[in-house]
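Hi V.,

You were right to ask for the full record rather than a summary. Here it is.
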Amino acid sequence: MVKVKSFPLSPFLIVVSILIFTPYVYADPPIPPSFLTAISDQDEKVPLFWFRPNPNSSELAYDDGSMHYHKYVSTEWHHNCLAVKMTSPEVLFYLLKSKVFISYDSDSIDPNYDFEAPFFITVNQDSGGIPKNTFLDSVSAQATGEDGVGIGGGWVEVEHNLLMNDSVDFWIVFHWMEETPLSPLVGVDRFSNVGNSFWGTRKSAHFEWHFNDYNIMIRAVIVTNGDDSCVVDSFRIYRSDTSFSISDTNLIGSVSSDQFQYVDTNVNNAQTYFYKVTSCSSENESDASNEASATPKKRAVLTLDQSSFEINLCSPDTAFEDLTLTNSGGLLLEFKIEIDMEKQSWMGGSDKFGYTWTDKNLQGGSDYSWVDIKDFGEEIGESGDNDENYGFFSLGFPFRFYGNFFDSLRISSNGWISFTDTMDSIPACYVNKPLPWIWGPYNLIAPFWDDLIFSDNSKIYFYSNNLDSAIISFINLDHWGDGGPYTFQTILNRNGEILFQYDRLGDPDTSATVGIQNKNGTTGLEVIWNEEYLEDSLWVKIRPGWVSVNSMWGTIESGESKTLNLTFDRLSYPQGIYHANLIINSRDLNHELDTIEIPLTLCIDTTTSVDFEEDQKPVTFALFQNYPNPFNPATSVQYAVGGRQTKAADGGLVLSEVEGRRTADGSFPHITAENCR
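Predicted structure:
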């Protein structure tokens, strides 16, 4: 009600004043943003992510919520686990927790069943439809019987509080403990797997994932921004060097209401910053969000103390050098080394570790010499054997293979050898694959990897002289179904060289893998895979590289260094000049660093490594006996280069006493192959 006040009227003036007051209604302040997260370890920046006020919370579930039976993997622990692949409706989401349905009863599977036995959960990245790297450390949990009530069991919740901003797919993986492979059991529903549920176990050196028939009762609870429009106009971002309460002096920026991230670039590396965000609507501002902190760090920086190596090997046969890697940046540096060998005319190929292969034909048809060990070798296997894995068999000497030393091996009836792999009766052991092959077999030597079986005339023999060589001979093995017989052998030498010899090969001889690979199938040397190549009386030799590094991968902390030891070894490489590149790939948490290449040169029984064009390189160098000799006041020395019509080039010769003192030298300008003597 509005009142009007009256005053005495003048005969000349009438004034009427009507005052109307509209009461001001104060709007409720908006709700602050949720789940503010600041990302550390970025170079000169701090990315911030948050979710709108009252964001959507949803449960990702692929089971029907009713346990039909309970699941275990094995009565023994082999890193047993269950996994469910989750898919978020949005790329930016926040994983609040996971949930696992634990059975309270084991149905007498285990008389000592304990549903309260501990387990642990990991959150893993998706890699081609299987779990891979974990996003964060594992979280331990256990049921108490009070975590929820269900038919024969209850849900156990595990908190994660993890921001996910680069993929909609992730995995929740349940792991049994080594002490309790049968406790607890996990619920499974009665409906066919929608494609998300798997179980996994390790067999030998292999971890294998298997499709589960029904849906495993593992869920995830996530937060997303959803499609609802935000009820605020903008967000304000505040920052301080310490934990703080917001004020105008701490304001560093604002973004519109449809933005849920901000990158603070006005930062110094190695300093910790604290952040809060508010919601704004009209003239009102919310209380502050949760406080988040982060520390930016300079990216990793790799420097080396050497830029190249040139080694001359005449005597002795081995040389050693050091290479120091330094990380002068702020983040942990990861490095991986590869060796790129320059192709020689006698080489069939090489791998990233430096192994090379050659064969009888590349060497001009040199002699073939089968080694018969049936009279003194140990006989292995018997008629009817199929997909067997025999061993271990002692070598009696250390054999270096991809940087590791082994003193025993196993032999597969499918034509391969391994220093570690015990797998049999699974496809990975008899279905030959190209190399390298990440699913194994591992630490593999494959003279003829294929699906082979024993017949009445089939034999495998093993022999070692317990000093410097071992021989494995496969005699008259047949191909599964039809084909064969095949007779071949492998000879291992203490210096790391491997010789394959093929005595008689029946048809088909185009279904096999020949080569080697390392302990995890990431590096390998393939001679052939299912190609027309093998023939009777063929030999193939695999050599370790003439340069080896004691550590092919590793990490270097900020401000630290790591010294690598390089070994240059002539092995059985012929006289000549060899080139390779030591390739160093490195990265930190956020960046792939520039690749560094270090040129390597090895001169075997030569006195120079001067670069020529390919058609100008002398093929041979000879130093002849001095004359007259001995006890003469003067002597003459002849030398020669030859083998190509080289262009003229300057050359020279230096003579030294045994103790190393130089006695004479001379230069010989414009020498060519045809006149240099």
